[in-house]
Design brief:
This protein has about 280 residues and is α/β, with parallel strands linked by helices. It is built from ten helices and 13 strands. Helix 8 runs parallel beside helix 9 and helix 9 runs parallel beside helix 10.
């Protein structure tokens, strides 16, 4: 049985992508009593800091799926977490092995969700359960209500509620997961280009009073796709003239939360966690 306290301390695999996220997962897992972390790191992507936090590390090129599966099997891993971005475009353009090519050949639609979903199936085939990418980082999820920076003004509260409704609709249509609003008008919508570019466009139009909203999709697969806000988001918001960041409470990861809250305070940016009225209020 998975999920019993007794078996949470051993045999954890980490598939470590770019940035600080995998390092935070590794530290949090160790705090939670995981003593043997078996990490798959990617050449040119993963922060070498991960070496210090793992019992064993296998450096692979992105696309070496067969090697990843063999490493986990050898290491006796039964549960794994995938953390940090590995650009889907990279996923199979670096010398994909035969296993990866066969997997790709089976997929009709090739996007992040189908590729990672298929990898999760392959992992299950060798007895490895892929856990949500928020595992061990529950403390870092956005709380409900105001959690950083100046308190909200009534106009901002209206924009937050309006923007949240709009963002959930965009996410439902699978266009993107964040947008920028000001005084009841949607200034910019995220599509494939990512939150930073959306911030730049929307913030510029909002001239200092814009609001960024970031939400989860109705069918979000938290095993490999988590809405994230980090220091870069706060810095970008400040540069772009966004005064309030609204994210979905309990479903958005605030990477290095204490630092982010402190930075928001310094830059005068409000942070607010919102929930849907129905399902998860």
């Amino acid at each position: 049985m998975h999920g019993h306290e007794g078996d949470q301390t051993d045999g954890l695999g980490l598939i470590a992508g770019r940035g600080v996220y995998p390092v935070l997962v590794a530290r949090a897992a160790r705090r939670a009593g995981v003593d043997g972390l078996s990490t798959v790191a990617f050449v040119g992507e993963t922060d070498p800091e991960i070496e210090k936090l793992s019992r064993r590390v296998e450096w692979l090129r992105v696309g070496q799926l067969g090697s990843l599966l063999r490493f986990f099997r050898r290491s006796g891993v039964s549960r794994a977490v995938m953390a940090g971005a590995v650009a889907p475009s990279h996923l199979f353009d670096l010398r994909p092995d035969l296993k990866a090519l066969l997997l790709l050949a089976r997929l009709k639609v090739r996007n992040a969700a189908t590729i990672f979903g298929a990898i999760a199936e392959e992992l299950r085939g060798v007895g490895v359960l892929l856990l949500p990418a928020t595992t061990y980082l529950e403390e870092e999820l956005a709380p409900a209500g105001h959690f950083g920076g100046p308190p909200l003004r009534p106009r901002q509260k209206e924009d937050a509620e309006f923007g949240f409704r709009m963002a959930k609709e965009i996410a439902r249509l699978d266009i993107g997961q964040s947008l920028v609003v000001k005084q009841g008008t949607v200034l910019a919508v995220e599509a494939f280009e990512g939150t930073d570019k959306t911030l730049e466009r929307g913030g510029g139009l909002g001239r200092g009073k814009a609001v960024l909203i970031k939400v989860s999709k109705p069918d979000q697969d938290f095993r490999f796709d988590v809405p994230v806000i980090g220091r870069q988001t706060i810095e970008m918001a400040s540069k772009s003239g966004v005064a309030l960041i609204v994210c979905e409470a309990g479903k958005t990861l605030i990477l290095e939360k204490e630092t982010v809250v402190q930075l928001a305070q310094e830059l005068g940016i409000s942070l607010y966690g919102m929930q849907e009225d129905g399902e998860n209020a």
